[in-house]
Automatic annotation (TrEMBL):
Residues 12-149 form the DinB-like domain. It holds the Pfam family DinB_2. Signal peptide: none annotated. The lineage of its organism: Bacteria, Bacillati, Chloroflexota, Chloroflexia, Candidatus Chloroheliales. This is DinB family protein.
């Protein structure tokens, strides 16, 4: 594994720890009642981060094996809409477990990739550009960071 992949995994671990700490600090009332900028409850937004690890892993697996990324923005929107319904009633403990499990699965997969797999460029069809597993790891970090910030903003707006 490259040193860059190791640093990216370290960043994901650090972000996940921050998400978990935040999730565990949310009151039960806010968990289901507060809404983020995406108009999701805090529970849905936190679970969405866990789903992001799965999406990232799928894309990273595709790239590392030379398969193009064919996911479209409409496809992502459909998955997000489905998630709002499917995961609306998850407890904080269930979301924390999924965050940790999904990250561990992503980490194990990345640790098993060769340098060739990490650096293999494939087409991200929707965007018409070449990407590799390292780029997609950074995309997963951005996704996690953006939704963590959304959670924080929703909680901060409540306390103002």
């Amino acid at each position: 594994m490259s040193s860059e992949a190791g640093l990216l995994l370290d960043k994901l671990r650090q972000l996940n720890a921050e998400v978990v700490q935040l999730v565990e600090s949310i009151s039960p009332e806010d968990w289901q009642g507060q809404h983020t900028g995406e108009n999701w409850t805090l529970g849905i937004a936190a679970h969405h981060i866990a789903l992001g690890y799965d999406y990232g892993m799928s894309w990273i697996e595709n790239a590392s094996s030379g398969q193009p990324i064919t996911t479209t923005p409409n496809g992502i929107d459909a998955l997000n809409a489905e998630g709002v319904t499917l995961y609306a009633n998850l407890s904080q403990g269930e979301v924390v477990a999924r965050l940790n499990q999904n990250l561990a699965t992503l980490e194990k997969m990345v640790l098993g990739l060769s340098e060739t797999g990490l650096n293999r460029n494939v087409l991200w069809v929707t965007f018409g550009r070449e990407v590799n597993a390292l780029y997609l790891m950074r995309t997963t970090i951005r996704h996690t960071t953006n939704h963590l910030e959304s959670l924080k903003q929703a909680l901060n707006s409540q306390s103002v």
